[in-house]
Amino acid sequence: MSALLDVQGLTVTLPTNSGPMTIVDDVDYAVEQGRVFGVAGESGSGKTISVLALMQLLPAGSSTSGVARYGGQDLLTLRSRALRNVRGAELAMVFQDPLTSLHPMLSIGKQLTEHVRSHEGASRAVAAKRAVELLEEVRIPDPEHALRGFPHQFSGGMRQRIAIAIALAARPKLLIADEPTTALDVTVQAGILRLLDRLRREQGLSVILITHDLGVMSSIADEVAIFYAGRIVESGPTRELLTSPRHPYTRALLDALPHPEQAGGTELVAIPGSPPTPRARPAGCAFHPRCPYAAEQCLVEVPPLVAVSASRLLACHVDPFRTG
Amino acid sequence: MSVPAVPIKVRSWQRRGPLASAAWRHPLAIAGLVIAGAWIFIAIFAPLLAPHNPLAQSATTFVPPSWGHFFGTDELGRDVFSRVLYGARLSIPLALLLVTLALLIGGTVGAIAGYFGGIVDGFVMRSADLVFAFPAIILAMVVTAALGPTVRNAVLALVIVSWPSYARVVRGLVLSVGEAEYVQSARLLGKSARRTLIRDILPNVFGPVLVLATLDLGNAVLLLSGLSFLGLGAQPPQPEWGAGVAEGTQYFQYWWIGTFPGLAIFTVVLAFNFLGDSLRDALDPQSSWSQGGDAE
Amino acid sequence: MAVQAFRHHYGLDKPLPVQYGTYLWRLVHGDLGESQQTHSPVSRDLGEFIPATAELAILSILVAVFVGMTLGVIAAVKRNKLTDHLLRIVSLGGVSMPTFWIALVSLYVFFFRLNWLPGTGRLDAVVTPPPHHTGLYTLDAAISGQWATAWNALQHLVLPALVLAAYNVGLLTRYTRSAVLEVISNDYVRAARAKGMPEPVVIVRHVLRAALPSVVTVIGLAFANVMTGAVLVENIFSWPGIGQYAYHSATTLDLPAIMGVSLFVAVVYIVINFLVDVLYGVIDPRIRIS
User: Fold this and answer.
1) Contact B120/C at CB under 8 A
2) Looking at beta carbons, which residues of chain B come within 8 Å of C265?
3) Between A87, A97, A105, which is nearest C195 by CB?
4) Where are the domains of chain A?
5) What are the CA-CA distances from residue B180 to residues B167, B185, B196, B203, B206 (Å)?
6) N- to C-terminal Cα distance for chain B?
7) Does domain A5-90+172-314 have CATH number 3.40.50.300?
8) Do C247 and B262 touch (CB under 8 A)?
9) In C, which residues are within 8 Å of B226 by CB distance?
10) C34 pairs with which residues across the strands?
11) Is B93 left (phi over 0), alpha (psi -120 to 50) or beta?
12) Element at A223 (helix H, strand E)
């Protein structure tokens, strides 16, 4: 089955006061139809920028190279009409903070229907009907009344549900969710994740889920890609990757998670050092200064992302945890 | 603690502003400086530059612009070019005087109000509100009419009208700076009130007030010439620009009489506004044009 | 003596609190005293002169808001490009031009030389004013179906209104630009683009709407500028409005008239501020009183 979205060699450079800065460096991944593809990594690792590039939502002056194949087109080279047709109707995005990603002065109804009418030429009545259905889908109580409401009148969790409804209104095939639960309470998080999972199962929606929270990842992602310093260091099926990680960074991340079974008094294991800023990325493997397994080769040569099994990709010269 | 009205960046008084490096990158500032400089030069050297005596009447009335008279002559045969040059000797020093007085009076009053608070503050702000309640030009007209229409009274009237703006800005700045921790600690350490005021607060107040004053210079020229235009400022035969435009409205068909004095006002005010706008860029990026709102 | 009579007539020989009290009492009853120059009640004078200025002010503000906001949006969208820099100069130019000078020059060019527009006054000398409904000649003539009169009134209105608008265009361009730039990098704007909305719709419906509250704040300032400018403009265009009335009252020290004008100005400020507050609520639902 060919992938819904196939990204190859994606590199993104942002303009800064001190010159162009490479944020995303030669990234490859593929998202299958009806699957949740997780993207994990710390802030500054390039995960958000890599998906913004897909919809060409980068700040002015940015440059991208590589290919992002979707439905026979390269998303990175689309212009005007073709780009507008893809945005919202093929790919859609849910941002991290629903308080800032919903327009404070437009009614919920307006925000739910304007792109539906724009993309499909739907009448006001048809669009409104779909809006009500969507709100029911995301379990917003009293949808007709909610249409006339404004974002500030809803709680954080409800706002994010509304944002998801807006994203789905023009019936996209691929939903990109950038840290959708980070700004919400833990109790509310679970509800949002369940919603995304249900949409995947019932509607065949494909999802790219960005998060730094491995716990969230393990609950709904089918596959995961681990970002570090602008590159993907490891990817594969979630369960397999999280139970037997091959990359030292992934292993260190998992080791750093506090376990409820640990006896009180055990120290939390932290990764020594801190992730490099995009300006100060080390030569060779970007993780080598913090890696206990680093070899000579790691200091000079960037490890390529290669398949180490039928479903696992790894970028590590040393591969200290290989089985067999 | 009360919320300061004006948000500012508080800098210790040793650090210089970023003026020097920014200046040459701003063509607008250069243009403003050059034009303003040219007019100041003209104001100083008008007697040497003017081909004729600005008050000298002659029989050659209503002569259009020509080689003998660059800007033509008016209804009394006076050379308009010379009158425009000499006009600079009125408008520019008067505007400078006006702004300086308003700044000193308003600034001092505002600083005192902000620093001491309480009844003093209340009294000052009520007086300022009272002035604000009247539209500037009406108040100015009344004062000049009451005191007699002369240039001196026009300046006085405008000082009365302008000081509250400075008072309000300085008061706001003093309040915000006063909230700053290092000033509070200085006070706790027992430095006398006046030393605190001068040493710590004044340098931080200097920047925004300078911007306000430079922009206000342009306004001052406009108001002064406006009053003279209405006959409430400079009186004939003084070659004041506003009065010149008034003359021009009387002798409508001889367009040069009114156009050139007005053009002079325009260029001077434009120069001050260019300068003030560029200063605003350098000292207060948040409200400047080059950054505009939040810097990216 | 004449001075005694003067003082007695105006009650200036009574103690101050009594004078103030009398004034307030009369004020509440709509009596603003009598003007020294026109020898008619100040309230009647105001009633006569206010509509002329109102007509001027309304058209002027409308033009200034429309043109200024458009230029401001363009400058913001084309930020730091040549267009932006040119618009900055235009904006600074607008606030630097002496109103009375631009009035003179435009009258000379458009009336005297090109004859595209009529000269001074609200109507041509031969045209009779329309029946009185609002005092705004253009509206009144239109209401009465006197289209020729309405057209004539409009022609007379254009030049002074545009001259009066110049300063505010400069002001609004600057403030709109700032306001737009503050909101244009907000997440909800990016979200609107992510939905595939066409850029013009994003700019108008999402960006401009969010920037409006900041711009509306300036509207009050714009009205103040119009009133100040009116004094000069009405002078040159022989426009029989409050500006002229204020000028004559001030120069003749006609106390009741001056008080009347000041009162009128204060009322206008209050009304405008109130309307601005209401407008905030309309634009930004977060501010509405539920």
Assistant:
1) no
2) 134-135, 138
3) A87
4) 5-90+172-314, 104-163
5) 20, 9, 12, 14, 16
6) 31
7) yes
8) no
9) 98-100, 232
10) C41
11) alpha
12) strand A223-228
Per the structure, the complete domain to which residue B26 belongs is given by: 22-46+85-290
Say yes or no for a CB contact (<8 Å) between C181 and B293.
yes
Give the ipTM of the model, two decimals please. Answer: 0.86
Contact B262 C101 (CB under 8 A): yes
Least CB-CB distance to A103: which of C188, C193, C201?
C188
Mean pLDDT confidence for B240-257: 88
Given an 8 Å threshold on Cβ–Cβ distance, is C101 in contact with B245? yes
Helix B151-179 / helix B202-229 crossing angle, nearest 10 deg: 160
Residue B12 burial (CB < 10 Å; 0-12/13-18/19+)?
A: exposed
pTM value is 0.82
Distance between CA atoms of residues C160 and C99, nearest Å: 10
Cα–Cα nearest to B85, from B127, B116, B48: B48
8-state DSSP, A19: E
Q: Chain A interface, mutation test: which of C81, C188, C205, most A Cβ atoms within 10 Å?
A: C188
Report H helices in chain C.
Answer: 2-9, 16-28, 42-77, 82-96, 99-106, 137-143, 147-184, 187-194, 199-201, 209-236, 242-251, 255-283
Give the residue on C whose Cα is nearest the Cα of B137.
C228
Do the Cβ atoms of C181 and B289 come within 8 Å? no
Choose, out of C74, C85, C91, C101, the residue to mutate when testing the contact with B (most B CBs < 10 Å): C101
Helix/strand/coil for B119:
helix
Which pLDDT belongs to residue B187? 64
Interval B129-184: pLDDT, tens: 877 767 777 888 888 888 888 888 889 988 988 888 888 888 888 777 766 656 66
Question: From residue B181, how far is each of B2, B10, B11, B200 by CA, in Å?
Answer: 14, 10, 12, 11
Q: How many separate domains does chain B show? A: 1
Residue ranges in chain A whose pLDDT is less than 50 = 1
Task: Tokens for A278, please give them.
Answer: 């995009």
Residue B6 pLDDT exceeds 50: no
Per-residue pLDDT tens over the stretch A72-114: 889 888 888 889 999 989 999 999 888 899 999 999 999 999 9
Residue listed under structure tokens 């004041």: B240
Q: Which two tokens stand for residue A32?
A: 């299958």
Inform me whether the C-beta atom of residue B224 falls under 8 Å from chain C C-beta atoms.
Answer: no
The token pair that represents B111 in the structure block: 């600083």
In a domain, B103, yes or no: yes
Contacts of C120 in chain B (CB under 8 A): none
10-residue mean pLDDT profile of chain C (290 residues): values are 61 65 67 67 84 92 94 91 91 93 90 83 79 80 81 88 94 92 91 92 93 88 87 90 89 83 85 88 78
Do the domain assignments include residue B16?
no
Residue A178 DSSP label: E
Task: Determine, yes or no, domain membership for B213.
Answer: yes
Cα C174 to Cα A163, A263, C72, C181, distances in angstroms: 34, 63, 6, 11
Q: Within an 8 Å CB–CB cutoff, is residue C187 touching chain A?
A: yes
The tokens for B107 are 């600034």
Note the pLDDT of residue B3.
42
Show residues of chain C in contact with B274, CB under 8 Å: 92
pLDDT of residue A323: 67
For residue B140, the domain's CATH number is 1.10.3720.10
Residue B184 in any domain: the answer is yes
Do B258 and B182 form a contact (C-beta atoms < 8 A)?
no
Nearest CA in chain A to C286: A152
Confidence bin at B283 (pLDDT 50/70/90):
confident
> Three-state SS across C20-66?
HHHHHHHHHCCCCCECCCCCCEHHHHHHHHHHHHHHHHHHHHHHHHH
- Cα(A54)–Cα(A67) distance, integer angstroms: 9
For C178, the closest of B138, B242, B292 (CB atoms) is B292
